[in-house]
Design a protein that fits this description.
Length: 107
């Protein structure tokens, strides 16, 4: 009979301010999304905690390596393009020289 009386309480007792004074069973529950919530076990948390102090040094080394790679790649690309320009300029100079010789023979 008691549960029947709880269903028909006056509206004033279910006001939003009074919801938080009731035990947990009276508080509105969050909407269930359908996927179960998975919590990491204590063993997993302890395992991750062992590596936690290493995260900052790992990030520093990783970013340093990434920066170094980018600088070396840029330098290699710059040297490669300079070499290609030098080869093309030599080829152009040789073609211009042969064109001058051909035009001088025709005159």
């Amino acid at each position: 009979m008691r549960s029947h009386r709880l269903l028909f309480r006056p509206r004033s007792t279910f006001a939003p301010s009074s919801l938080y004074t009731f035990p947990n069973r009276w508080r509105p529950r969050p909407h269930y999304s359908g996927t179960p919530i998975r919590h990491a076990s204590n063993a997993a948390k302890e395992g991750f905690a062992a590596f936690r102090p290493l995260t900052r040094p790992f990030v520093k080394v990783f970013l340093g390596a990434l920066f170094t790679y980018q600088v070396v790649y840029w330098a290699w690309l710059k040297l490669e393009t300079d070499e290609l320009k030098l080869q093309k300029n030599k080829e152009i100079a040789a073609l211009e020289q042969s064109a001058r010789q051909l035009t001088s023979r025709q005159k």
